[in-house]
Design a protein that fits this description.
3-stranded antiparallel beta sheet, about 75% helix
Length: about 200
């Protein structure tokens, strides 16, 4: 300790420090910058790890129950989604298909709790809104076909009211496309968040 103190206070050491103080200052600043950069990287990595841990966490019991309840009406294999994805016709529907649509909307209206997970809940709220918009677009534009279980946009609109017919088709088509995009985003997010419920239709 004594030798180190004598070395630091010696005239040769002081002279060397005076000659090289600029380089030492730059080296010190560089060292500080390196330490700060490494600290920022560490904080960033810790944030990423925390985010990953949150994503890998199991969903709450409430969220798991909510997801199961939704799947009773609108799983990817349900009659409702099979119709919307594979059998949807813009101008004509079976009454039973509209009943399925209304049943899911009614379920959403009866259970406004949503999800504990904020990201998933936002997607769920958007999905509900897309279902409502589609139903609102269908509602004033289709009518029951006499002596049939079908509903249709009046075919005479093509000739008598072409602008109204075109607007109805465009609005329904757009609402349908946006609904499927919102649904796919919701399902992908739910799967990423480790929901273990089987995506099956109600039996």
């Amino acid at each position: 300790m004594t030798a180190a103190v004598l070395f630091l206070v010696s005239s040769d050491t002081r002279s060397w420090l005076r000659e090289h103080y600029m380089g030492l200052a730059i080296a010190g600043l560089a060292l500080v910058a390196i330490v700060l950069t490494l600290s920022n990287i560490l904080v960033s990595q810790q944030a990423k790890i925390s985010d990953l841990e949150a994503r890998l966490a199991e969903p709450s019991t409430h969220d798991a129950d909510m997801f199961q309840a939704i799947n009773q009406y609108a799983s990817p294999q349900s009659d409702l989604l099979v119709w919307l994805r594979n059998g949807f016709l813009v101008t004509s529907y079976e009454g039973s298909q509209l009943i399925l649509l209304d049943q899911f909307i009614d379920f959403c209206n009866r259970d406004p709790r949503g999800f504990d997970d904020a990201e998933l809940n936002a997607m769920y709220k958007d999905l509900i809104q897309r279902f409502r918009i589609l139903r609102d677009r269908i509602g004033p534009n289709i009518f029951p076909v006499p002596h049939s279980s079908r509903y249709t946009i009046p075919p005479e609109w093509r000739d008598e009211r072409p602008e109204v017919h075109h607007k109805a088709v465009q609005q329904i088509s757009t609402a349908h496309e946006e609904l499927l995009k919102a649904y796919d985003a919701f399902i992908v997010a739910a799967q990423r968040k480790r929901f273990r419920s089987h995506l099956e239709a109600r039996k």
